[in-house]
Structure formats: structure tokens, C-alpha cells
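Repro:
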Amino acid sequence: MIDDELETELRGTFARAGAGIAVPQQARQRLLQRGYRRRAARRRLAVSIAAAATVAGAAVALTTLAPASPQPVVHLTAWTVSSRPDGDVVVTIRELRHPGGLARKLRADGIPASVIFGNHLNPSCRPYPGSIELTEKVFPASQPPPHVLRVTIRPSALPGGAGVQIYDGAAARQSHGRTFSIGAGLVRVSRRCTG
């Protein structure tokens, strides 16, 4: 892979050396250094091409092999929020932690929400008037796995001016050696309650 110019120069040097003409040391050093630089440049180019090909291959593999998920899912140790294809939003709670983050995630998904973990309810939240049937439409029953609390929310069933509130409730469950419970209900939408 020696270029034509370097090859011509080398042939001339060898021809002079073979004819008994001494090649000056500086010229010999220049030729060697030039060859080293060219070889090093070719190696760097080959390594760069190989690295780019590896990165491109990894990107293709990740996009090809990664499972397609139509809806984004946020996973935290304490809770998970996922959207199902039918539009329902499933909140899985493993620990009563990070209520503000859960409320922000639900609001980002278009659900006015208040989340309270602990003994203190939000005094700004007012119950939404309605029947048990309305509450059951918004919160359809689901069977969670053991040691996990799950609330399914059907946003399409939320009446105008209503939001959801998730709070410590009455159904006790065991998780990570601790007992906790969760409840859900409808509240009136207000800036101080549901954001």
C-alpha cells in the first residue's frame, strides 16, 4: 500500500545504493520517517473504520433486538406506571415512596392526580360527587401479583372536572418486610390538589 511517489523515491534510492552511490543518512531517515507516518496513518484509519463499524453494528442490533413498546414505561423501585393499548394506565406500587414523582408522571400522562403517602391528606382536595359505579368505571378491578399493589385507571371514564387521588388505604399488603396499603378515589380538579 505504498503510494506511487514513495515507491518511486525508494526505487531511486535502491538504484543509487546498488550503483555504489552512498545515500546520505538524512535522506534515509526522511524516507523511513515518512514510511512510519504513512503506516501509522493507515493503521489509525483502519482502527477508526473498525470502531465505526462496531458502533453501527451495535446500534442496528439494539434497534433490531430491542422489544418494541408502543407506550413508554417508567420504572422505579417504589412504583411503575405503564399505559396499556386499550388506554388504561396501570400504577404498580411496591413501596410507598416518591409520591410527588408518581403524581408528576400521572399528570404527564394526562391524568389530573394527587398522590399522598403517609397519614396526612391534602386539605386542598375535595371529593368528587359521584356514585360507586362511577368510581368503579374509573378504577376497574385488577388482580395484582402478591406483595404488590396495583391501581388501574381508565382516563376515558374520568368525568369533566374530576381527577384521581391515590393514598394510603385500607387493604393491607406486605412488601419488603413492611405492611402498607393503598386506596384510590375521585377528587375535584384544582391547581392545589391535582396540579
